[in-house]
Design a protein that fits this description.
The complex is a heterodimer of chains A (217) and B (680). Chain A has 217 residues and is mostly helical. Chain A has a domain at 10-28 and 70-173: Methane Monooxygenase Hydroxylase, Chain G, domain 1, CATH 1.20.58. Helix content of chain A is 48%, strand content 6%. Chain A is built from six helices and three strands; from the N terminus they run H-E-E-H-E-H-H-H-H. In chain A, helix 3 (75-87) packs parallel to helix 5 and helix 4 (99-106) runs antiparallel to helix 5. Chain A is elongated, with a radius of gyration of 24 Å. Chain B has 680 residues and is α/β, with parallel strands linked by helices. Among the domains of chain B are: 1-121 and 276-310, inorganic pyrophosphatase (n-terminal core), CATH 3.90.1640; 364-537, no CATH class; 559-679, Diaminopimelate Epimerase, Chain A, domain 1 (Roll). In chain B, strands 1-7-5-4-2-3 form a six-stranded parallel β-sheet, with helices on both faces. In chain B, strands 14-15-16-17-19-18 form a six-stranded mixed β-sheet, with helices on both faces. In chain B, strand 16 and strand 17 (615-621) form a beta hairpin. In chain B, helix 2 runs antiparallel to helix 12 (296-311), helix 21 (478-491) runs antiparallel to helix 22 and helix 21 crosses helix 23. Chain B is globular, with a radius of gyration of 27 Å. Classes of the chains: A mainly alpha (217), B alpha/beta (680). Chain A binds chain B through residues 36, 61-64, 79, 82-83, 110, 112, 114, 116-119, 122-123, 126, and chain B through 48-50, 291-292, 294-296, 334-335, 347-348, 350, 355-358, 367, 369-370, 372-374.
């Protein structure tokens, strides 16, 4: 590997701390909590109140209250969403941005009511996998959209934090490398064209200067 | 003071108030599984309330208390301290005692609020507060406890012996000072008071020639009575005695009343030692009184603690049944019992097809979900570590089966194999690890045992046991966990190291693997100390059980149990693990049961002596008619009496019925015991 060139190795998932940051940011979401104590003005025993997730988790750890699952976190709501994801080409917008992290955090503890937290986890995991797969399949289409832009950007409605964490680094790296290759090609072509006195050429097949790794079969 | 069960939560809240923002609690914990479970429960509570706390394994109570009193805001004693006079060792801050050992030293009950004893329901008459209860005039047992309380690692030499004598003389002088002008002091240690006390007590209200300690005691008494009248945050408890002599003083002369009172106090101490509810159960009750009743982890720890108390003879059968019933009700409240409610079971099973599509036609794939640490109660067999060993091993090393079939004899083994053959279990299958036995055989086990076991006298093979789901559908029983942790504690040489390992083993979220018991040498496969302490503990537990059985068998074969007029005694082998009191208790229970079935022993108590470096651990056990009964253990007084009436090196530990004697003095000690019991 020629180390003088920017590395084509992708960062391993999670090694850049992005999933931790996402999990941390998810704790700002507000959830409903039913406290067991009364501390005016906001907490009255038995009365649901909206607090950030980090506060709710603290209360739950100290057995001072219990968290009420948000509306979308139920089998009845998640099953249709899974169906929708499997059939529709676009990502659903009815899930919150941090749905994956929230599910992980909320379903960690055993619950003493009817909801089975493991089933919810399974459902959310399935939804996540379907969405990621859809994004992967649509990736070339997105690339095509981004081709003519200087700063490539594409609007994906309904994307969530978990998918961004998974695909984000790859996307950044890949688009960056692509831009670099394009730029080098253009420079080479322009140099060559200037030497020959021609206009700059685009659209020709890209021959990267950096030797690509050949994969054995 | 006694803290009654309804007010335990107030004791805890007092801890919170005392500690406030920067106080810290010191939890001194005896190395038993019961205390460890209570320690984990307490630690959970304190963590939830953001109170800093230290957890220490304590073998020398006096030293640790002295160390703690300088630093701690308050001290919690788990499974120790109740029978000793704590007012002597710890001044100032508060002590909370969760100790099943009884009788509780009267000074602890009638002290002011500094010493809080968590009291479960106990109908024993307790002598009320008043004269003759000063901290100095302690029972014979606690005097010995005061003098020397090391148990394990310290070196004992003759200097301790001389200090014993010195202290004894010192005590003598103190009492002499107290009762100035009264040269006659009691020589017998059974009497709690001076024989000539009544003269002084009559003058007590008049003459202030009392020594400072007596005055303090009276001040305390007065202030205690004043406090009793005012309403405070913590409920005061009235002494539970209703002596008719006090309420009708006109009928008895003061001297007679004094004598009557002395007799009551004497009776209180000399009836023998017994046990109340285990510390772990007390801690769990405390947790339910606070806001932590929903946590299955705490319930599980209570189950393990109760099972451990039962196994080590601190609970009799009725006690265990009562506590098990309460725990079972708690289990059902937390997670409704699956086996009873089909609808609930249906709700808890999930099929993959339910998640992906609405209709479920054809075959469905059942998903196995995490068990989330659910605790439930089920009748289980009294086989030893059945889930982690083979059926044959489990039956061979089970106390019930082994004693009933007299397995130390070859004829007994043949009977066992015959039973298995009758049930239709091939021997090779029985030697497989239980988890790998044919499922058909495992399903048959229950019905076949019911059919054939009675012929061989194996009637009560089942008992209510508690099981916890760890990981995905693997199950751990409370007995297994208790055995594993106890073995880790018993085998340890470095007390802190093994204490920590046993604490880890109680964490119970990692399921130990089935092969752990098979490979003694191969500890890499999940039975390593660091990797899986519970697995290693199970491996040690089996080893320990084999050692106990081997020791018993060798005693029987060699006829090494000598019978004297008042008791039997036996020198148990040379291994250091056998010198632990807990192990000796199990060995004694095993021997008792063997001989009950034999019909050879009818009544005498048993003393076991085990060599431990330069000392012998001497433990005395009472005989009961049936296994699982409980009789108050009076060996504490006998040992104390014998130790005081002869020269030698002695030390008491936490239990009154266990004493450490120097190796040179053991024989004489036994003779002295016999002589004293003869003359009594």
């Amino acid at each position: 590997m020629n180390t003088a060139q920017p590395s084509l190795l992708l960062p391993a998932a999670g090694q850049d701390g992005s999933s931790f940051r996402a999990s941390f940011s998810a704790e700002e979401t507000h959830v409903e909590v039913i406290p067991d104590f009364t501390a005016s003005p906001s907490f009255m025993a038995g009365v649901p109140v909206q607090v950030p997730l980090w506060k709710a988790e603290l209360l739950q750890t100290r057995s001072l209250g219990r968290i009420v699952f948000p509306d979308w976190l139920s089998i009845d709501k998640l099953r249709p969403i899974l169906q929708q994801e499997k059939t529709q080409p676009l990502l659903t917008t009815s899930l919150p941005f941090y749905y994956y992290e929230l599910t992980r955090k909320l379903t960690n503890r055993p619950r003493h009511d009817d909801t089975n937290p493991d089933v919810l986890r399974l459902l959310v995991e399935d939804i996540f996998q379907v969405r990621v797969e859809k994004l992967r399949q649509q990736f070339p289409a997105y690339l095509a959209l981004m081709e003519d832009q200087d700063i490539p950007k594409v609007d994906v409605p309904g994307i969530a934090s978990a998918e961004l964490v998974l695909l984000g680094p790859f996307l950044l790296q890949a688009l960056g490398d692509r831009a670099l290759l394009l730029q080098q090609t253009k420079t080479n072509k322009n140099d060559a064209a200037e030497e020959r006195g021609e206009d700059t050429v685009t659209g020709e097949p890209i021959r990267p200067k950096v030797p690509l790794r050949r994969f054995r079969r | 003071m006694k803290l009654e069960i309804e007010y335990w939560h107030r004791g805890y809240q007092q801890i919170l108030r005392d500690c406030g923002q920067d106080g810290s609690v010191w939890i001194l914990c005896r190395p038993t599984v019961d205390a460890l479970c209570a320690a984990r429960i307490l630690s959970f509570l304190l963590r939830a309330d953001h109170i800093a706390h230290h957890l220490l394994c304590c073998t020398n109570l006096e030293e640790d208390l002295k160390q703690a009193s300088a630093v701690a805001t308050c001290v919690v004693l788990l499974h120790m301290g109740a029978p000793q006079n704590l007012t002597k060792w710890y001044q100032g801050r508060q002590i909370y005692v969760l100790d099943p050992a009884r009788p509780v030293h009267l000074a602890n009950i009638h002290a002011n609020r500094d010493i809080v004893v968590f009291w479960d329901i106990d109908e024993t008459e307790i002598p009320s507060d008043g004269e003759n209860l000063s901290g100095n005039e302690s029972s014979s047992e606690s005097e010995d406890d005061d003098e020397s309380s090391e148990e394990d690692d310290e070196e004992e030499d003759s200097s301790v012996a001389s200090s014993d004598r010195d202290e004894g003389e010192f005590e003598y002088q103190d009492e002499n000072d107290e009762n100035a002008g009264d040269p006659l002091q009691q020589q017998q240690e059974e009497n709690q008071e001076d024989s000539d006390d009544d003269d002084h007590d009559d003058d007590s209200s008049v003459g202030r020639a009392k020594k400072p300690r007596r005055e303090d005691e009276e001040d305390e008494t007065e202030s205690y009575e004043k406090e009793r009248d005012t309403t405070e945050a913590m409920e005061e408890t009235e002494p539970t005695t209703v002596p008719t002599a006090e309420s009708t003083p006109a009928l008895l002369t003061p001297r007679q009343w004094q004598q009557d009172r002395r007799q009551r106090i004497e009776r209180y101490y000399s009836a023998g030692s017994y046990y109340g509810a285990p510390a772990a159960f007390v801690a769990y009750q405390l947790a339910t009184q606070l806001r932590f009743g929903d946590h299955t982890t705490l319930l599980w720890l209570a189950c393990v603690g109760v099972t451990d108390a039962y196994w080590h003879g601190r609970l009799d059968l009725t006690g265990y049944s009562t506590l098990a019933l309460q725990l079972r009700q708690a289990c059902q409240k937390l997670d409704a019992d699956d086996s009873d409610d089909i609808a609930l079971r249906a709700r808890n099973t999930v099929y993959a097809e339910q998640l992906s599509s609405n209709g479920a036609t054809g075959e469905r794939t059942k998903l196995s979900l995490r068990g989330t640490g659910r605790v439930f109660s089920q009748p289980d067999y009294k086989f030893f570590l059945l889930r982690f060993s083979s059926l044959l091993d489990a039956m061979m090393y089970s106390d019930t089966v082994s004693t009933q079939l007299q397995l130390y004899r070859p004829a007994g083994m043949n009977k066992l194999k015959e039973l298995l053959a009758k049930m239709g279990f091939p021997l090779t299958e029985c030697q497989q690890p239980y988890a790998f036995m044919k499922p058909a055989l495992r399903r048959m086990l229950a019905s076949k045992l019911q059919e054939y076991a009675e012929e061989y006298g194996l009637e009560n093979l089942e008992y209510t046991s508690f099981l916890r789901i760890t990981g995905y559908q693997s199950v751990l029983s409370a007995a297994d966990a208790a055995h594993a942790a106890a073995a880790l504690l018993d085998f340890g040489s470095d007390k802190d190291d093994m204490f920590n390992r046993a604490l880890d083993a109680l964490q119970s979220n990692a399921p130990p693997r089935v092969m752990d018991l098979q490979n003694e040498d191969n500890l890499v496969n999940g039975g390593s100390l660091t990797g899986n302490p519970l697995g290693y503990g199970l491996h040690l537990a089996m080893k320990l059980q084999k050692k106990i059985f081997a020791a018993a068998a060798s005693l029987m074969e060699r006829n090494a149990i000598t019978s004297l007029a008042h008791f039997r005694y036996a020198y148990v082998g040379d291994e250091s693990v056998l010198a632990k009191p807990a192990v000796l208790t199990r060995l004694a229970q095993y021997l008792f049961q063997l001989h009950r079935v034999n019909g050879k022993w009818v009544g005498r108590p048993l003393i076991l002596l085990a060599k431990d470096d330069d000392f012998y651990t001497v433990a005395g056990y009472e005989y009961t008619e049936k296994a699982g009964d409980w009789v108050r253990n009076r060996w504490g007084q006998h040992f104390a009496l014998a130790a005081q009436s002869m020269t030698g090196t002695f030390s008491f530990g936490h239990d009154s019925h266990v004493i450490r004697v120097g190796s040179d003095d053991v024989q004489r000690f036994l003779e002295q015991l016999h002589y004293l019991m003869d003359s009594a």
